[in-house]
Automatic annotation (TrEMBL):
Monomer. InterPro entries: aa-tRNA-synth_I_CS (IPR001412), Arg-tRNA-ligase (IPR001278), Arg-tRNA-synth_N (IPR005148), Arg-tRNA-synth_N_sf (IPR036695), ArgRS_core (IPR035684), DALR_anticod-bd (IPR008909), Rossmann-like_a/b/a_fold (IPR014729), tRNAsynth_Ia_anticodon-bd (IPR009080). NCBIfam families: argS. Residues 451-579 form the DALR anticodon binding domain. Its EC number is 6.1.1.19. Keywords: Aminoacyl-tRNA synthetase, ATP-binding, Cytoplasm, Ligase, Nucleotide-binding, Protein biosynthesis. This is Arginine--tRNA ligase. Residues 5-94 form the Arginyl tRNA synthetase N-terminal domain. SMART domains: Arg_tRNA_synt_N, DALR_1. Belongs to the class-I aminoacyl-tRNA synthetase family. It comes from the Bacteria.
Length: 580
């Protein structure tokens, strides 16, 4: 039950009636008419911009149009007042029974309350993490993994058919470096001193790989040249790293639907086919790029390359797809990979990249626009850096990884639920501080604790009711007469009503952090009501001898928990039933 959508339908119906009676001209575009919470709750329950957006095309004064619309809306039983404000905004107040209806709807729908059909089953591919398979995942991957996973869940909740995908970057030179690094650990397992020279991966995580290689090959590779073992060890080590990465993701509760190998694009004609499609469209040519702006690199030289006309699709410059020596650029297999997504029938693509990939956004969007004839939109979300602190100091690197703090380090210190929630307390393109002390403290300043505590408080009420012999399951509570006798109760009920609208807004913007913000606000409203009960006994959830009041208040509290649980589910966080 999306109350805001329902009241918007009432507004649209009133506008249609005004068209029929000649107050408005035919053919007005009503798509920009909105109904939303007012900026100031003192102004009403909802506000509509209808008069403001329609006045000019209707040839009317905004306030005159607002007054006419207000007269129509006052005929709606659920609308108790419609008042014009400012230049032509219209503030609405709704009958108190409406908010009780929403709470009952939440109880009746349970975990599905707020689910939307916004996506209408459209197929969406969300590619995230996609870390090089050269070692354990680091804290930067952690934030990207959580963001991508929560976004996928949000889109699923909003009615999209979502595929979670990991692109394995196993086709470049970095996997050769991995193989050479693993070979040194193999030599170590054979009793020799490893030569971890500059450019190799130094982390201890490759020691077990070296031992596994010894178990498989014995010492048969020691006297052989690289040309004899590089390919086999590359494949062996890559799979070992992917197994480690899958374990890292599992520790966060992240499970991919598809792992797509970059290497599978090479030697199969897929890169050539994608570029041939662009060539047939007249978008591939041989040319010389302009020198980079600013100071020229010392090794800069003009050279002819194979270029993609990405400027025709909004990019700043055309992009090389083949080097002057005939080898592919990094961009070429990425074009082919995204072409496979288009070919697999996705209606929308989302890539989650690290902040260091900002320069890749325009060229990748240009490629997808070209390959899909602008039919398939690509949204690229950049994930900013995470700064780790503990005891007031920057958290040091992991010895096991060699050069960085691992995902496992973070999860072992803070736990998966805390890590997931806190990583979503900032928008993806804003830097985030992760202080191990603060994310574990039990206070209002810690969002994850505050939300979990609200859910746990409701669970304690339900346990107390059961101990007292009350049969208060959700089905029974959904039939309760929910009475809102105090401002704190009304505020909580109104916030519950915002949940379906929030889901749609967050899904349209691909912004799961909005869910975390909403849950904090909802929890705050629940805690405020709870604290009001401490001061005013007549507002407590249990009212001795008054079954109707008790059932009403418990129903409102339980509806709040239903929404918190659904929101935490989207974020991948387990709702707490009690706090210790």
């Amino acid at each position: 039950m999306n109350l805001f959508a329902n009241i918007r339908a009432v507004v649209i119906n009133a506008l249609n009636e005004m068209t029929k009676d000649g107050t408005l001209p035919e053919g007005l575009d009503l798509s920009n008419v909105t109904v939303e919470p007012p900026r100031d709750a003192l102004h009403g329950d909802m506000a509509t911009n209808a008069a403001m957006v329609l006045a000019k095309p209707a040839g009317a004064k905004p306030r005159d149009l607002a007054e006419a619309l207000a007269a129509k809306l006052r005929e709606e039983p659920r609308v108790t007042s419609a008042e014009v404000a400012g230049p032509g905004f219209l503030n609405l107040r709704l009958d108190a029974s409406v908010w009780g209806d929403v709470a009952r709807a939440a109880l009746a729908a349970g975990p599905d309350f707020g689910r939307a059909d916004l996506g209408r089953g459209l197929k969406v591919n969300v590619e995230y993490v996609s870390a090089n398979p050269t070692g354990p995942m680091h804290v930067g991957h952690t934030r990207g993994a959580i963001f991508g996973d929560a976004l996928s869940s949000l889109l699923d909740f909003a009615g999209y058919d979502v595929t979670r995908e990991y692109y394995i970057n196993d086709g470049g030179a970095q996997v050769d470096v991995l193989a050479r690094s693993a070979y040194e650990r193999y030599r170590e397992a054979c009793g020799l001193e490893p030569e971890i020279r500059e450019g190799l991966y130094p982390g201890d995580y490759l020691i077990p790989v070296g031992q596994a290689l010894k178990d498989k090959y014995g010492d048969s590779l020691l006297e052989k040249g690289e040309q004899f073992w590089l390919e086999d060890i590359r494949e062996f080590a890559t799979e070992a790293m992917m197994e480690m990465i899958r374990g890292d993701l599992a520790s966060l509760g992240v499970k991919m639907d598809v792992f797509y190998s970059e290497k599978s694009l090479y030697g199969t004609g897929q890169i050539e086919a994608a570029l041939k499609r662009l060539e047939d469209m007249g978008l591939i040519y041989e040319g010389v790029l302009e020198p980079p702006k600013g100071k020229l690199p010392e090794d800069w030289e003009e050279r002819e390359q194979t270029l993609f006309k990405s400027t025709q699709f909004g990019d700043d410059v055309d992009r090389p797809v083949k080097k002057s020596d005939g080898s592919w650029t990094y961009f070429a297999p990425d074009i082919a990979y995204h072409w496979t997504k288009v070919e697999r029938g996705y209606d929308m693509l989302i890539d989650v990249f690290g902040a260091d990939h900002g320069g890749y956004v325009k060229r990748m969007k240009a490629a997808v626009a070209a390959l899909s004839d602008r039919r398939v939109p690509l949204d690229i979300k950049l994930i900013q850096l995470v700064k780790l602190f503990k005891n007031g100091e920057p958290f040091k690197m992991s010895k096991r990884a060699g050069t960085f703090v691992t995902l496992r380090d973070v999860v072992e210190q803070a736990g998966a639920d805390v890590t997931r929630f806190h990583m979503l307390t900032r928008k993806n393109d804003a830097a985030l501080d992760f202080d191990f002390d603060k994310v574990l403290e039990q206070s209002k300043d810690n969002p994850v604790f505050y939300v979990q505590y609200a859910h746990a408080r409701v669970c304690s009420v339900m346990r107390k009711a059961a101990e007292a012999g009350w049969d208060l399951n959700d089905a029974k509570l959904s039939q309760a007469d929910i009475m809102l006798e105090d401002a704190a109760q009304a505020t909580l009920a109104r916030k519950i009503a915002e949940w379906p609208r929030l889901v749609e807004i967050a899904a349209r913007a691909n912004e799961p952090h909005r869910v975390a913000f909403f849950l904090y606000e909802l929890a705050s409203d629940l805690h405020s009501l709870w604290n009001r009960g401490n001061d005013k006994p007549e507002l407590r959830f249990f009212q001795e001898g008054d079954e109707a009041a008790t059932t009403s208040r418990i129903a409102l509290a339980r509806a709040t928990a239903v929404v918190i649980s659904a929101g935490l589910g989207i974020l991948g966080v387990t709702p707490a039933e009690e706090m210790r």
